[in-house]
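Service request form, structural biology core

Requester: graduate student, group of Dr. S.
Request type: structure prediction, single chain
Budget code: on file
Notes: please return the result as structure tokens.

Sequence provided:
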Amino acid sequence: MKAKNITTNNKSIIKKLKDQNKINDSLLACVGSLSLEDLIGLKFELSAEHINNRLYGFDIWRKTSYIVKDAILKFAISTTKSKKDAARFLGLTPQEFYRVCKQYDVNDYFD
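Core staff response, request fulfilled:
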């Protein structure tokens, strides 16, 4: 069983995706020039193309909160030095932070 306590040192979404050869510096430069709204819209459009623009049955409006919170949680972990700092950044108590990490399964994401 994995340790319950995770540190946030050496956690990076960029590093993880580079290690998986999913992104490179050129893509990061392009992404950096986009607004968050444009990036989200672009991702949805790319996803929809593969299924002939039919996202029926995928409740985007209600799932958006989960998707955004998952991204913010991963960002907080990758940019802070400790769990305590990540919890503070998010405005969560340590207990809430541990619960949220378990709910969003972020402990396994960075492994």
